[in-house]
Design a protein that fits this description.
about 140 residues; alpha/beta; D-Maltodextrin-Binding Protein, domain 2; 8 strands; about 50% helix
Length: about 140
């Protein structure tokens, strides 16, 4: 009888907590200005873009912007899309710049600066939580991460 009571209580309390934790995890999306010609980018294309591999849309080079406004979002992007830690990414992108030239994707620590850069440059993309992207009318989602 005690074992049944324990299992019943466990089912009542453990299951909702697990479901709640899953639904609370933020989902990341790739966004661009609403006026951008960019329609869709896959996670693989996004990874290549942030590694410095040039991509063109309507003969315009897409410019990735790094969202450093929230450490959790930054780490989620690095883990889910880039498959590496932030320090490993920094080493890899610096190595690429030194070997092949070019520049590192600009990083933004302030949300208003990131949004301003994104909304004024139709060739720019960045990542952010879905909730933030859908709350901004000047942005459109161009990728699911």
């Amino acid at each position: 009888m005690t074992r049944r009571l324990f299992l019943a209580l466990f089912a009542c309390f453990a299951l909702p907590t697990g479901l709640h934790a899953q639904t609370m995890e933020q989902s990341l999306v790739l966004v661009a200005s609403a006026q951008s010609a960019i329609q869709r980018l896959s996670p693989d294309e996004t990874r290549k873009l942030y590694l410095g591999i040039p991509m063109l849309v309507d003969s315009q080079r897409i410019r990735p912007l790094r969202n450093n406004t929230n450490l959790k979002v930054q780490e989620m992007f690095m883990q889910k899309v880039m498959f590496m830690s932030t320090p490993a990414y920094e080493r890899q992108i610096l190595s690429r710049v030194f070997r092949m030239g070019g520049t590192r994707p600009p990083a933004y620590a302030e949300l208003r600066d990131l949004l301003n850069a994104l909304e004024t440059d139709p060739a720019a993309v960045t990542y952010m939580p879905r909730e933030l992207a859908t709350a901004r009318p000047g942005l459109k989602i161009v990728g699911e991460l």
